[in-house]
Design a protein that fits this description.
Oligomer: single chain
Bound molecules: acetyl coenzyme *A
Number of domains: 2
Strand content: 25-35%
CATH superfamily of the largest domain: Thiolase/Chalcone synthase
Largest sheet: 5 strands, mixed
Radius of gyration: 18 Å
CATH topology of the largest domain: Peroxisomal Thiolase, Chain A, domain 1
CATH architecture of the largest domain: 3-Layer(aba) Sandwich
Structural class: alpha/beta
Distance between the termini: 17 Å
Length: 323
Amino acid sequence: MIRSVVRGFGAALPKRVVTNRELEETVDTSDEWIVQRTGIKQRYIAGEGETTASLGEAAARAALDNAGLTPADIDLIIVATSTPDNTFPATAVNIQNRLGMTHGFAFDVQAVCTGFVYAVATADVYIRGGLAKRVLVIGAETFSRILDWTDRTTCVLFGDGAGALILEAAEGEGTTDDRGVLTASLRSDGSHKDKLYVDGGPSTTGTVGQLRMEGREVFKHAVGMITDVIDAAFAATGTTAEQLDWLVPHQANRRIIEGSAKKLSIPMDKVVMTVDQHGNTSAASIPLALAVAAGDGRIKKGDLVMLEAMGGGFTWGAVLLRW
Ligand code: ACO
């Protein structure tokens, strides 16, 4: 059977680092409060000229270099983002153009923090369906542009960045020993839409709007939703937590990650954690974390890796793959 195998990875961050101490100067917060409640120590914030598409392009070029490929080798680009450069055209098409590509096709996926998980699952379906052979899957965000910088309950949590994976078609045996995407478990439930949302949009206010969140409510649902989809991915493949080499969670909050790992009996030395450095970069957080852990040699070819996320909507999901 055809599998969607990881061929390369890459990431890009804005130039400017903003520490918790710097935020103390503009909002009523403290480094201690932020670290204790979230684990975040710093985040990267996009400056002039840095956009979701420019960060996505840089991550894509890094992934192409890592894979030893050029844009000519890609036939589909999927970008997961909730902070597109423009309402349309899609950021994926913008990045396609920046890469000098006029062949293939490109589109965006919007599932907020779960966007990258949805995008990998979507790429896998296109590859297994024979519609694409090599897909550039990008998570790219500039959440700093939709934050209310006077609201201390949200502005301290998020950051900007981008990460990318290249998935390509390869023959597999149809067993869990195959490299590539083994299963995906995706969910959404719009009855939670008011707990985490942006209070504007083209069809309602005609403005971009700003992020609003009931943090406690999100926290209350997060661990249960995350563990449900991970359990579903294990059940669908007949694999177990003991067999897992790496859990690469969406990097929202250290406490949510630790709570999920504990409930699943996954030891913390198998969990990739970058929230301290990047903050919550929404759809970019998983590919950024993958690039860090594959880049420093922790994630190796053949490792069993679980990706998971939960975010606005609510949306939540997990992808199990063999690296
Ligand atoms: N600095 C200092 N004090 C603050 C700050 C801040 N930045 N923000 C809130 N506080 C205060 C509150 O005003 C409150 O004060 P009060 O008791 O005088 O009213 C106190 O801290 C406690 O506030 P809570 O909201 O109850 O704090 P909590 O322990 O729930 O932590 C947090 C807040 C970190 C947002 C937590 O609820 C959380 O992590 N939620 C998950 C949200 C999340 O990660 N969202 C990301 C998007 S979804 C996703 O990616 C999974």
